[in-house]
Automatic annotation (TrEMBL):
<dbReference type="InterPro" id="IPR039323">
    <property type="entry name" value="ANKRD_45/46/60"/>
</dbReference>
<keyword id="KW-0040">ANK repeat</keyword>
<protein>
    <submittedName>
        <fullName>Ankyrin repeat domain-containing protein 29 isoform X2</fullName>
    </submittedName>
</protein>
<feature type="repeat" description="ANK">
    <location>
        <begin position="82"/>
        <end position="110"/>
    </location>
</feature>
<dbReference type="InterPro" id="IPR036770">
    <property type="entry name" value="Ankyrin_rpt-contain_sf"/>
</dbReference>
<dbReference type="Pfam" id="PF12796">
    <property type="entry name" value="Ank_2"/>
</dbReference>
<feature type="repeat" description="ANK">
    <location>
        <begin position="213"/>
        <end position="245"/>
    </location>
</feature>
<dbReference type="Pfam" id="PF00023">
    <property type="entry name" value="Ank"/>
</dbReference>
<feature type="repeat" description="ANK">
    <location>
        <begin position="115"/>
        <end position="147"/>
    </location>
</feature>
<dbReference type="InterPro" id="IPR002110">
    <property type="entry name" value="Ankyrin_rpt"/>
</dbReference>
<feature type="repeat" description="ANK">
    <location>
        <begin position="16"/>
        <end position="48"/>
    </location>
</feature>
<feature type="repeat" description="ANK">
    <location>
        <begin position="148"/>
        <end position="180"/>
    </location>
</feature>
<feature type="repeat" description="ANK">
    <location>
        <begin position="49"/>
        <end position="81"/>
    </location>
</feature>
Length: 280
């Protein structure tokens, strides 16, 4: 191991600015990392993409390497071309011990990729509940969206992470926060048929009516053919008589007889199957 590390000292770069220290850090070879650093390897050197040895160690979850690099002056402020940092990488892959180490060494919990994604957003996307709890307790903003308006709650709902959704709602996540396209967490969960997520959202009384994008969660559930989801939303009070921006009732979006039966069972008195008032 030592001889290979010493041989590598004569090769400053492997490819695209990748150093032997980066390779060793990525692979988690702590002995090689130690030898390279003691022989004078530049810890904070960045490859063409902006990544560093610390970034690679954090991305791969090698906490022993991360701790060692900090002992020799590794910086948490180096960014990749897309704005990535070691904290963002560790959060994206759910490496709880590494996230904890990075925060203890001054990593900025409000770091964002250039598209606006935060460490909390990336952890929510992956469903890493322990990382999410740590980030929230360390001051992460629960409602901080990406540039396209996607909030952590929205992405957790899209991915079906019901426990993450529950924790975020309890920590103050906006149940009705909409993306720039007008979709909400409930609408996305309804579209996907994630009933566990929907049940958590319904505990916080989200909007069941027509959204800014001109449709409703019930329309989305019907269109996707999710029978149990349709039943869940109707039981929560979703109105089958509401029309979307195309002037369509939920019942006009399906030929599924079971769904149509559910919708009819929730129609008010004096309404026909298309939501029109009957003559008396």
């Amino acid at each position: 191991m030592q001889s290979r590390c010493l041989l590598g000292l004569f090769l400053k770069e492997v490819d695209h600015g990748t150093t032997l220290l980066m390779v060793a850090s990525y692979a988690g070879h702590i002995d090689c990392v130690r030898e390279l650093v003691l022989q004078g390897a530049d810890i904070n050197l960045q490859r063409e993409s902006g990544t560093t040895a610390l970034f690679f160690a954090a991305q791969q979850g090698h906490n022993d390497v991360v701790r060692f690099l900090f002992g020799f002056g590794a910086s948490t402020e180096c960014r990749t071309k897309d704005g990535g940092t070691a904290l963002l990488a560790a959060s994206q892959y759910g490496h709880m011990p590494v996230v904890e180490t990075l925060l203890k060494h001054g990593a900025n919990i409000h770091d964002q990729l250039y598209d606006g994604a935060t460490a909390l957003f990336l952890a929510a996307q992956g469903g890493y509940l322990d990382v999410i709890r740590l980030l929230l307790s360390s001051g992460a903003k629960v409602n901080q969206p990406r540039q396209d308006g996607t909030a952590p709650l929205w992405i957790a709902s899209q991915m079906g992470h019901s426990e993450v959704v529950r924790v975020m709602l309890l920590r103050g996540a906006d149940r009705d926060a909409a993306r720039n396209d007008g979709t909400t967490a409930l609408l996305k969960a309804a579209n996907k048929g994630y009933n566990d997520v929907i049940e958590e959202l319904l505990k916080f009384s989200p909007t069941l009516g027509i959204l800014k994008n001109g449709t409703s969660a019930l329309h989305a559930a019907v269109l996707s053919g999710n029978i149990e989801t349709v039943a869940l939303l109707l039981e929560a009070g979703a109105d089958p008589a509401l029309r979307n921006k195309a002037n369509e009732l939920p019942a006009e979006l399906t030929k599924n007889e079971r769904i149509l039966h559910l919708l009819r069972s929730k129609e008010g008195p004096g309404k026909n199957e298309f939501g029109s008032t009957l003559d008396r």
